[in-house]
Write a structure and sequence with these properties.
Domain DDE Tnp4: 48-203
InterPro entries: HARBI1_dom
Cofactor: a divalent metal cation
Structural class: alpha/beta
Keywords: Metal-binding
Number of strands: 7
Strand content: 15-25%
Radius of gyration: 19 Å
Organism: Streptomyces halobius
Number of domains: 1
């Protein structure tokens, strides 16, 4: 682009970053996304985490971004969708070694749900996120213990939850269709801005 238009590469890069910043500014914050769901009469949201692959880095950053779960380097993002699989919100990037439940706590996810009187459905990785049995807002299914296997009823509950959560995977698939996410070479702060911009573009493409 720079060579064809006889302008410097740094100018093109600055233009691209300005467009990305403008798009990212349109991405909703968590509280606004939940408020919008409530305003539309929604009662439940779906949430999950995903690892966006990155190139290996040297030094301490290399270890921070390595995910033992995925056996790859990357940045962890949490995503919120509605029951139709539309992306509503993406968290800021966290190092790949972070766990999904820790990232949810970092974003005060349970407190935000209670403030907006909403419930949420997540996978077993979020078990223990909500420890208030009198005001439970996060449903995650049942884990099996070594000495206490799941009963047929609990297995059926897990299947029902998995079927409801399937739309989360569809939302992530739409987001990861962007070629630039093949393997990022960005700082976490810039990756957060890029993913926020792609959230806006993804919703625009899906709704067309």
């Amino acid at each position: 682009m720079a060579g064809d238009n006889r302008i410097s590469a740094s100018t093109v890069r600055r233009w691209v970053m300005e467009v990305i910043d403008l798009l990212a500014a349109r991405a909703p914050r968590l509280d606004r996304a939940l408020k919008k769901v409530t305003r539309k009469g929604g009662h439940v949201v779906l949430f999950d985490g995903t690892l966006i692959r990155t190139r290996r880095r040297t030094g301490a950053d290399n270890r921070r971004n390595y995910s033992g779960k995925h056996k790859a380097h990357g940045l962890l993002f949490l995503a919120l969708t509605d029951d139709k699989g539309r992306l509503l919100w993406l968290s800021a990037a966290r190092p790949g070694h972070s766990s999904e439940i820790t990232t949810a706590r970092y974003n005060r996810f349970v407190e935000q749900l209670r403030a907006h009187k909403l419930g949420a459905i997540g996978d077993l990785g979020f078990t223990g996120l909500d420890n208030d049995p009198n005001n439970l807002v996060v449903i995650t299914g049942y884990k099996a213990a070594r000495t206490k296997p799941r009963t047929p009823a609990k297995k059926q509950v897990n299947k029902l939850i998995a079927s409801v959560r399937a739309v989360c995977e569809h939302a992530f698939a739409h987001l990861k269709n962007w070629r630039t996410l093949t393997k990022l070479r960005l700082h976490a702060r810039h990756a957060t801005t890029l993913l926020s911009a792609l959230l806006v573009l993804t919703n625009t493409e899906v709704s067309r």
